[in-house]
Amino acid sequence: MSSFPNPSAVLNLELDINQVMANGETVIIGTQCSGVTGTWESAFTSGKYDHWWSSSIKCDPMKWTANVWHHRQIGMHRDAKGVVTHDWVNLDNAHYAWGRTQLSAHFLGWAPGVIDVQYQIEGSSKGSGSVTSYIHKLTIYRW
Known about the structure:
Elements: E1 2-3, E2 10-20, E3 25-34, E4 39-46, E5 49-58, E6 72-78, E7 83-91, E8 94-103, E9 105-107, E10 115-123, E11 134-135
Antiparallel strand pairs: 1-11, 2-3, 2-10, 3-4, 3-9, 4-5, 6-7, 7-8
């Protein structure tokens, strides 16, 4: 769960799990609520670069209610080749089927076995600024 005192300052909220497979490829299991497109987006790899694919599921962090806990859950999985499937997303008790599958792995030089969790905020200001965010009970399940 997270809360923003000033959600209009948040352009994108990105939630990633990066996992390095035994062959050394890093799988970018990236998901973001994009204020640019107003949708949930998933990361994919094309060549040496990562890109965002916009779903039809609406999401805009700038429109979230201020000072309220927003509960997000994302169901996703990957295969042994680094192909990631975003199965579903829940936002504040609303469930949305996703079903997007795409390649999301390439060599970044990270050590095999590394799992990295990222919570990233992109601010809406074109210049410098700050965004305050509160996180509560960030939980990752892996099996």
